[in-house]
Amino acid sequence: MAPAPAAAPPGPGSQAAPQGGLEDRIARFATIWGRAIFPVTATSLTRVEFERHLVPLTRTLTEALHARRFDAAVGQRVGTELVAVHCTDPEALAGTLGVIESYLVLYCGSPYPHSPGSEGAEESRSRCARLQHGIAAGFARALRERTLREQEAIARSALTARIDAQQALHASEERFRAVFEGAAVGIGIADLDGNVLECNDALLQMFGGLEGHVRSRNVSEWGHPDDTPHVWRMYGELVRGERESYRVEKPYYRHDGTVLWTNLTVSLLRDPDGVPQYQLALMEDTTERRLLNLRLRYEATHDALTGLPNRTLFFERLEKALSGTGDSRFGLCYLDLDGFKAVNDSLGHSAGDRLLVEVADRLQSCATGPGEVVARLGGDEFVALTTGSDTEEKVTDLAVRILSALSTPIRLEGRELTVRGSIGIVEGRARERTPAEVLRSADITMYRAKAAGGNRFEFADAEADARAITRHGLTNALPAALERGEFFIEYQPLVHLHDGSVHGAEALVRWSHPQYGVLGPDRFIPLAERTGLIVPLGRWVLEESVRQARNWRNQHGGGSLRVNVNLSPTQLHHPGLVADTVAVLEKSGLAPGALCLEVTESALIGADDELLEPLRRLAALGVDIALDDFGTGYSNLANLRRLPVSVLKLDRSFTQGMQQQPADPVDVKIVEGIVALAHSLELAVTVEGVETGVQAAQLRALGCDTAQGWYYARPGAPDRIHTLSLSDAVPTPS
């Protein structure tokens, strides 16, 4: 029975009937009914809405009580309606029957209109009982039908779901099979013991198309010598369930012995409980790509013309050799062909290329020992490397074999060409130098061998390397040094031997280097000659010297003082020599006769009229021309009359024997003859390197005109010229 309402109306035995109209009593009964069954009803309605929904059912029951002919089916319909509004709980039925039994007649009934007295009340109670029976029957039938419908719906849904699942599984299997068979990558499935269970056609084709070579095989049979240990270590971890997947690059042998390279991805497949069950392999054939990469690598590391390793690969080999351990050593030969440019210039670059190919073949035949390799660095430069413990003997033997192989003439375009080469050798212990340092030392040493005549080899020398590196640094610093004003000029007096008076001074350029200090011209003039900087440097020296000579004349009245300026061979060939000299003289206001240009004898050996023309024009203007270092160039003395010179500067090598008494008679005779010859040609004679008074007196006695050397003064600042009091120290023969 459902619980009674909070404010229960009078019981069925009460004599006080509810007041109000029938509709009010119907509404009140619906409220009591709703409160009794709402708590056990599964509905989305509120209680008020639910009670309002019970009003029509209460009216239906009331009409059944009052009907002339009673219809028991009314109760069944009410029971059915209760199920329709989700009053399906058994307590809802019990509550409904209890409320109807207790309150329906009291609130909604009346004495039976056609039965007198108590017979009408009895009829109402009878009808109420029959309505309860009908409600229970209708409720039970409706609930049963609803249950059957729900069960049928569930069965249909289950069947539909099963059919859908089967169709989805079939479609999934079809998709998997389509992917498995149509995939461009090879797919294989194996058990945990490594036995291949399934494989697709792509995998079969990778292995040559023979099914028996793949299916029913065990993956352990597919080892390859190039397999790294960690490949099979990861495989073991996977089948033991210690890792889910791994990816490696792995080679395989096909049935025909060729190698298949793959990108291999292996994954572990587990069952629903997480237990390892299968292994899935995905293979991508990378053989062609690998071959292409190897080809590209070969082309990137080998010389296209000769097929030898190029600079890139050689640096890798050299770096590996230099990173050796223990007592490992290395030996390197750096070869440059002598005169190869002449072959290109005379026979053409095509012939030069064929010559390089032949040279490469011969070098390759020389480097056949263990650890020996030959490479082409570029042009006509080759290197050969040997490693081991006794590399000093091995690299010497290698250099001898190379020069011997090159000594056999090469036949090219009907000609026999003799090939020569210069080799620089660097040998030493590993880990002491970098590849760049070794190559630099070998290059420097090779040029030293070339400077010594070529067709030979030289061993690297640390001091020679340091000098070469210093020369290179000076060469690079020369242009900036001129712009920064790092050059200055010192002047060494020229003295009249007959009275000791200052005749003039030779301008000697110096370089105040920020790192190496003051450098003499022998350290940088040859570098300036090779780089072409000698022309602007020479012009600057000329301008400074002429300006200083003008200052001497203006400040001290030295009308007879003149300045000697050296000209290099490169300046002699410069087309602007005459114009530049004239412009400098005109700008300073110095007379041409106060300038003497010194030219070395070696620069004029074999000089033609075209080279001599600028000197002749300068001499015609009044500028003196001095032939410097006379006697060292092995020139024909008869050529003196062709040269536009007015002064011979005798080299110091002829007068060194006169520094002490008795003087070397041979030197005396040579100097005496040169002086006589010069004077006969109306040339003045200047002697360099005078260091003793005895030497100066002897030269004066032989008729030399002027001299310079440490006996008189070292080169110094320009203001020292007029502080020298030399006229009192005229040397006399002893």
Task: Supply the key terms.
734 residues; 47% helix; five-stranded antiparallel β-sheet
Largest sheet: 8 strands, mixed, barrel
The count of strands amounts to 21
Number of helices: 21
Mean pLDDT reading:
85
**What oligomeric arrangement do these chains adopt?**
single chain
Shape: elongated
Runs with pLDDT <50, length 5+? 1-15, 111-118, 725-734
Helix coverage percent of residues? 40-55%
Gyration radius (Cα, Å) is 61 Å
Helix/strand-derived category reads alpha/beta
- Give the strand order of the largest sheet, numbering strands 1, 2, ... along the chain: 13-14-16-17-18-19-20-21
- Beta-sheet strand percentage? 15-25%
Q: What's the end-to-end separation, in Å? A: 165 Å
Protein model, in words:
With 734 residues, the protein is of the alpha/beta class. 47% of the residues lie in helices and 19% in strands. It is built from 21 helices and 21 strands. Strands 13-14-16-17-18-19-20-21 form an 8-stranded mixed β-barrel. A hairpin with a 2-residue loop joins strand 9 and strand 10. Helix 1 runs antiparallel to helix 4, helix 10 packs antiparallel against helix 11 and helix 11 crosses helix 12. The protein is elongated.
